[in-house]
Amino acid sequence: MKAIVCLSAVVVASTPFVGTPARADDAEAARLCRGDAFKLCLSEIPDRDRITACMVRNRARLSPGCQTVFNKPSRPATVEAASHTIR
């Protein structure tokens, strides 16, 4: 029962409302990293910030799919880079 509650908490905490491309990216990131969150950061669930910090600390141990999420540049940096190319 506790595992079901934890799974539900991770799904809710890591899957925001879908509707925009950014939200779709978040849903994909949650899908790619869900297993790693359970394996490496179970004690941090359901606190999304603590899960993220745990994942960063364990970056070398993440699955290849989840590593792609953590190796992507952050959105603000991407937006800033895109705005410089437009100017």
Care to describe what's here?
With 87 residues, the protein is mostly helical. It has helices at residues 2-14, 21-41, 48-57, 64-71, 75-86. Residues 3-8, 14-21 and 77-87 have low confidence and may be disordered. It has one domain (2-86). The chain is 74% helix and 0% strand.
Q: Summarize this, please?
A:
The chain has 87 residues and is an all-alpha fold. The protein has helices at 2-14, 21-41, 48-57, 64-71, 75-86.
> Helical content, roughly?
over 70%
Number of strands: 0
Low-confidence stretches: 3-8, 14-21, 77-87
**Outline:** globular
Mean pLDDT: 72
Task: Give me the secondary-structure topology.
Blueprint: H1 2-14, H2 21-41, H3 48-57, H4 64-71, H5 75-86
Which descriptors apply to this entry?
87 residues; mainly alpha; 5 helices; 0% strand; globular; disordered N terminus; disordered C terminus
